[in-house]
Amino acid sequence: MLHTRTLAAAAASMLILAACGRDDTFIDSGVDNDLLAHVPAGTPYLSANLQPIPDEIIDSYLQRAQPVLDVLQRELTSTRQALASAPTSDHSLDPVILALVNEFDGKLNRSGLEELGLDLQAPRALYGMGAFPVFRMGLSDATRLRATIQRILDAGGIAAPQLDHQGTGYWRLPASDDTGAGRGGAIYIAILDNQLTIGIFPASLESELLPHLLGQSMPAESDAAERLQAINERQGYTPYGTGSFDLLALTDELFSSESVSGRALMDAGIDVSTQLGPMCREEIRQIVSQAPRVHSGLTELTSDSVGYELVVEAEPGLAAELAGLVARVPQADPDSVGVLEFALGLKVGALRDFLRGRTAAVAEAPYRCQHLQELNDAARKMYTQLNQPIPPLVNNFEGLRISLNRLGSNPAQAEQVEGVMAIHVEQPEMFVGMAQMFLPDLAALQLTPGAPPARLPASMIPLPGVVAFAALSDSAIGLSVGAGEEARLADYLDEDSEPGGTFLSMNYDTETYLEYTDRFSDQMAQFQAGPDEEPGPIHGLAEAARQAYKAMAGRTDTRMSFSEEGIHITSRMTFK
Questions:
Q1: Structure letter (DSSP) for residue 326
Q2: Using 50, 70 and 90 to split pLDDT, how confident is the model at 534?
Q3: Where do the structural domains in the chain lie, given as residue ranges?
Q4: Where are the alpha helices (DSSP H) in 171-268?
Q5: How far apart, in Å, are the Cα atoms of 532 and each of 1, 526, 528, 529, 535?
Q6: Which of 351, 368, 507, 541 suits a disulfide with 75, CB 3.0-4.6 Å?
Q7: What pTM was estimated for this model as a whole?
Q8: Which residues are registered as beta bridge partners of 573?
Q9: Tens of pLDDT along 492-524?
């Protein structure tokens, strides 16, 4: 049986070309995506590109990805031969996989993908008809892609004859065991003159939504382009991929008996108005309004790097409370060349007070909706737990920082770790003094703020041969591990912190991270697999893709912060 993780890795490697870079000097805030005209005004979610990626940048990215494509091509050919010769009883999903492999074999390049009908510069749009998703993508050749899809369906043994609606052909694939004529949902696929369009919605709404999907009925009004442009201008995003998700609008869509989604629920036997009632609906809206919208976009897209931001908008009062939780702790070095830089700055005492205040509010004025009683119970339980005494070190904790120059293949062995760390607390001298009362060897060390790092005695280190030093600053307790690392401990503790609301930051070598995650995944797979299980024939394809990707991966930098707008998550990945 094909594992989802393996297939996802292979698919991601094939599609990496669709997320290629741009020239830093290329700036154009205009809109070049005619698919947005299909998007109805007020759709609760929307993701699209406003400009195509320039040709020269796509070509440069293809050149960078060529080693990955070469490995994929070799593995595709090998996998095709293995699947073709294996008994069909051994791999029930493999007729479809084999059909896909046959189509991509020999075409993992720009001309080959365009030969299938795909377009690396294509406009794209994902949006909702109510709650139901629609995806549109421009094509280089609609006729070729239509033939490609039909070959895959035929070779995979999927019975999906092309249907017709007012002269436009489409495929309907039931999402369940029914025929698509009742209440069950279905996947609708159509290839129009210049685009591929895919929609998922209940068959009961087919007569209403299918004309829209097929472009036979256009919305009376569309604000998609203006909506995305406004986000790009406000956040400084590039025009190559922006998303917006209005959770409050989606909630109202589901609650309204007059909306497309509300009528679909009614058809499925779910009467929201009767089952929830106005009180429940209003209380649920109050909860959703604490974080009503999410938007995202590409902050950078070059041949050497990809930058991304996700913003969760928060109610102003909540945003202000969250911002007050951030401790002034130095952030991870964005220009680091070490294995890992990590920094967390959160006032645990303030976090406890924040959670206690929020749970107390629910406990004192519980939700009246019968469907929210579990939230009331959870709030009361958490409030009781938060009122229990906690150790002073935990209550006064403000941050943790780690900087590793070396991390061996087995991090459980301390001699393979070289780096420094800092625990940020209020009054670090007090905590060291308390520890020295119980640890005589520690009491012999002169640990005072600003004093040179002091070597920890071997009796305090559980593993032999490990060199460790400790030091203090006015705000942190520092530790170095590894010979020579103590030389940078004092400067590490004295690094300046900057305001800005960032409470978590990481900068790490992506290849090292992928090696550790692969090792962990393999160990879990061995633990879960039976003694006679063998990797599927597609396993080599995914493994080769992962190894080739690791070879081109550079560094990853991730930041999480609070602001008056809400929660910001930014990430930037570079390539070798």
A1: B
A2: low
A3: 4-239+522-544, 392-506
A4: 206-213, 224-235, 247-255, 260-267
A5: 13, 11, 12, 8, 10
A6: 541
A7: 0.84
A8: 306, 556
A9: 999 988 778 999 999 999 998 888 887 777 666
